Amino acid sequence: MQTPVVILGANFYTALGAIRTLGRRGIPVYALDYHFPTAYALASRYVTRRILCPDVNTDEEGLARFLLDLGKSFPERPVLMATADNYALLISRYAEELSRYYLFPDNRANLLEKVIDKKGLAQLAEEHGLRIPQTFIVDQEANLAKITSNIAYPCIIKPALSHKFVRVFRQKCIFVNNEGELLPALKTAQDSRLEVMVQEIIPGFDDRMYVFDAYINKQGRVTHTFSAQKLRQFPINFGSSTLTHQVFIRELIELGREYMQKIGYRGYGEIEFKQHPDNGLFYLIEINARLSTLNILFDQCGVEFTYIMYRDLIGNPLPDFHLEEERPWAFWHAYEDLISCFAYLKKKQLTLGQIIKPWRAHRKAHAVWAADDPLPLFAFSRLIFGKIAGKLLRVVTRT
Description:
39% of the residues lie in helices and 22% in strands. It is an alpha/beta fold. It is globular and about 60 Å long. The model has no long low-confidence stretch (mean pLDDT 93).
């Protein structure tokens, strides 16, 4: 029997992609989630066992104890993978205890906390000379007058920890046009006890966003690389990919490798960059220290990062591979992309022709649909229809 994998979190297509990558290779997958009704990835035929666990958002310590007890039940250490920031933080914080029962990349203490926490990332960038947009950290000692007079408008307010911020504001950041909007927005964030920062917006449309993906082994060697360009996002301008195609950009690859090695990162990681339209420079936007939403795109292009990490952690690494040609694949999340396209049209950021052209130009790597594993799509659709029905009911009730 092959070494099993324990996947933390199953309520997003990030987990679904990883489950399918591993399951198709006959690897046993134990998928954990704290709320089965919304964990649509659990419907996958490739899940060996579905496990209800404590909620990482409200009981991180309880989940850590749960994982330690679960780990003791395996005859050999399984591989442990995180599908979201909160799970990656848990693994990092309890690394010493969990490493007795699980296999996962060995990053130095507190590195993932700094990478995931946008405040920590800004400090890492300053320490290692990484190019990021102008950033002001807002804390108790922050000089708001200095921030408001030096930041260029429009700007954004970003959270230190995205998953906490999204739970409060239902968005990844707050767009600010002027000082009159900035100060009240900062007060709202502070009243919610959220650590935030004010950051310059690098100009340019969403297709100026790029991703660099890599695997770095325990010796610190970059063994696999991949790059892609976002074409559309949800929500538009400051969201996750809805249409992203693979593209090879040597400068981006070299910069990403340099940044990962400077901070001493280990395991699979993804850097999001935005290219400035005037000077052509790539600015680091964030680093994802968990599995990627683009997993299916990697698989279709022959760079299966989930499996690459698995093989390395069990001591049987795959040969090095760096994708340096362009392949005709694009990641596509049909439901979210449809919503985004209406928003782009409404704001006159794209025309119908500009929407259709890139969509027709690529073969699709679907976020949720798979012919050999159809049930997750039905589970996802049930959730969407439930949300729509709930909204309609609230409208009818108010009238």
